[in-house]
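Tip: read the tokens left to right.
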């Protein structure tokens, strides 16, 4: 976690987001910025290698940050497996729930820490929106590329190499048959047998755990910072529609057929999704009231603006009222969500009626069968 946080600080410095010049009233000689590295921030100045005014140079630190996140997540995967093995769980379900919780907590911190930092420490909605757009869009493209395009290219290369080695072996066998048995015996030596099962056995195993994790992380991007980037939900729908087809292609051509296991729910994943939804009520209310100027449009007498008119300031005499309003909205959202979960049944009424009808029919048929058997 310390490595992930330090990497985030370096990335934000390289992007020019951590700069005391952007908020002179808050950061000055008497109160220096604790996470500012001047040499790194200088690389984001106009004309430098990570020029923040250039649309493609400014993306280089973001791409490096996303690549670092991906590497750290893959590294922690091994650590999480070892730690969970040491815990010696009694059941397989408890083992899976434990490893899901470990990996989600680490990957969620790794992915969201920069956004929480910009939203609630820097309190700059423009920086938050820019970072969210860059990270979310690049991570979406990265996921689609690594799950389908890269495995397909690697498989084509390996298959071509295997075919070359197979032809070389068949040519040697053909020459050997020609020397011993004559030309007639070698007529069918070059025929390549059709072996679908052995070809499928050479494919990679399907990892459904990573697909679940990526969707849950994406859900967090969409919900936790919805007020900063509302378009993320539309982009996620389009990306998921594309991923549905890419997953079909992956399961058909790139991976072994997964073993089917029936279950009655999402287990730990369901609890994580519920936690994200409830936490999103808090984060969006805080962004609405403390980071952006949305609440100021409705209640301007609670706020003041900095001299450069880029940062919100709160009036000290009315700050307690503002905090009460923001947390009151958060409580109202949570109570509304709880009310909807109670009012809306988990299983629709028509489905319950159909299940009860089928159960009744089966009981009647069983009764009739027992009655005829007794006769």
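Filled-in amino acids:
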């Amino acid at each position: 976690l310390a490595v992930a946080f330090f990497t985030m600080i370096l990335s934000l410095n390289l992007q020019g987001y951590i700069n005391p010049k952007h908020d002179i009233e808050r950061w000055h000689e008497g109160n220096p910025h604790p996470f500012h590295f001047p040499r790194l921030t200088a690389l984001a100045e106009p004309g430098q290698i990570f020029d923040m005014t250039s649309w493609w140079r400014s993306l280089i630190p973001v791409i490096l940050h996303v690549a670092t996140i991906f590497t750290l997540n893959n590294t922690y995967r091994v650590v999480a497996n070892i730690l969970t093995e040491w815990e010696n769980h009694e059941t397989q379900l408890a083992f899976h729930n434990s490893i899901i919780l470990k990996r989600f907590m680490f990957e969620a911190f790794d992915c969201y820490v920069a956004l929480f930092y910009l939203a609630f420490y820097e309190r700059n909605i423009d920086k938050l929106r820019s970072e969210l757009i860059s990270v979310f869009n690049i991570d979406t493209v990265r996921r689609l590329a690594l799950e389908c395009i890269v495995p397909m290219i690697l498989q084509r290369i390996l298959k071509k190499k295997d075919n070359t080695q197979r032809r070389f072996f068949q040519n040697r066998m053909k020459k050997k048959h020609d020397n011993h048995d004559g030309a007639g015996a070698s007529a069918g030596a070059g025929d390549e047998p059709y072996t679908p099962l052995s070809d499928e056995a050479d494919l990679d195993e399907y990892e459904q755990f990573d697909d679940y994790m990526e969707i849950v992380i994406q859900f967090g991007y969409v919900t936790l910072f919805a007020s900063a980037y509302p378009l993320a939900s539309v982009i996620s729908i389009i990306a998921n529609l594309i991923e549905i087809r890419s997953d079909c292609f992956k399961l058909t051509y790139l991976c072994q057929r997964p073993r089917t296991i029936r279950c009655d729910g999402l287990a730990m994943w369901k609890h994580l999704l519920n936690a994200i939804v409830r936490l999103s009520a808090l984060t969006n209310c805080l962004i609405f009231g403390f980071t952006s100027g949305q609440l100021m449009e409705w209640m301007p007498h609670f706020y003041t603006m900095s001299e450069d008119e880029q940062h919100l300031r709160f009036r000290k005499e009315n700050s307690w009222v503002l905090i009460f309003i923001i947390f009151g909205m958060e409580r109202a959202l949570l109570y509304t969500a709880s009310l909807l979960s109670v009012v809306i049944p988990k299983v629709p009424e028509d489905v319950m009626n159909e299940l009860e009808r089928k159960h009744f029919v089966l009981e009647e048929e069983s009764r009739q069968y027992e009655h005829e058997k007794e006769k």
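Confidence is low (pLDDT under 50) at residues 183-191. The longest helix spans residues 125-181.
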